[in-house]
Design brief:
Number of domains: 1
Structural class: alpha/beta
Oligomer: single chain
Strand content: 25-35%
Number of helices: 6
Largest sheet: 8 strands, mixed
Helix content: 10-25%
Shape: globular
CATH class: Alpha Beta
Length: about 200
């Protein structure tokens, strides 16, 4: 069973629908017991880093997620990925979960072309920089769907894949241990995204 963490800031329906379309048992939950019982956990998120971190704290699930990440595969998506890092700088400085090294910063100052639109929204090619089981059914250079204004950097050798935008190598996928993160939305990335979700279900 794949548990999708419900802490009030995720697009849960489309993600749950994509997993069910793959024939995978899925449960949207904020129950500590159900998260511990799950085989895998997906941690989604949409919105601002600080607000989402506060809502997550209110659920009391922070220690549960940290403990379960030591035992089973956990994947963050979009803002859920960003919260996995050490800290974020959206509307101030906020502590992340510290499950993957790095910090989440504004994309705008790093762009070579300031006229480029932010948020970075739409389809972009993902370049695989490190082989990983998450890419079992994914080909280098396939297109995935992004919607974000902040991105993770200073991640060291945890980066698995990146997409170029305005001269910036946007961290598209990262991993440390049992914890994966993808900045793009696999549930909105067509067949390529579904294949990536299937690979996660097989980790």
């Amino acid at each position: 069973m794949i548990a999708i963490v419900d802490y009030g800031v995720g697009n849960l329906f489309s993600l749950s629908s994509s997993l069910k379309a793959l024939g995978l048992e899925t449960e949207v939950t904020r129950s500590e017991e159900r998260l511990r019982a799950a085989d895998r956990i997906i941690f989604p998120g949409v919105g601002a880093f600080g607000d989402a971190r506060a809502k997550l704290e209110e659920t009391g699930l922070v220690p549960v997620l940290r403990e379960e990440a030591e035992r089973k595969p956990l994947m963050g998506i979009c803002l859920g990925m960003q919260l996995l890092f050490d800290r974020g700088f959206e509307y101030g400085e906020h502590e992340g979960l510290g499950l993957i090294p790095g910090q989440v910063v504004d994309l705008r100052p790093d762009l070579n072309d300031p006229s480029l639109k932010v948020p970075h929204m739409g389809w972009n090619s993902l370049r695989i920089v490190k082989d990983d089981p998450l890419f079992k059914y994914f080909k280098d250079g396939e297109y995935v769907y992004y919607v974000h204004s902040f991105y993770a950097r200073d991640c060291g050798d945890c980066v698995l894949g990146a997409s170029e935008y305005g001269g910036v190598a946007v961290t598209g996928a990262a991993r440390r241990g049992n914890v994966w993160g993808v900045q793009f939305h696999p549930e909105k990335s067509g067949d390529a995204g579904l294949r990536l979700l299937r690979a996660f279900a097989e980790l």
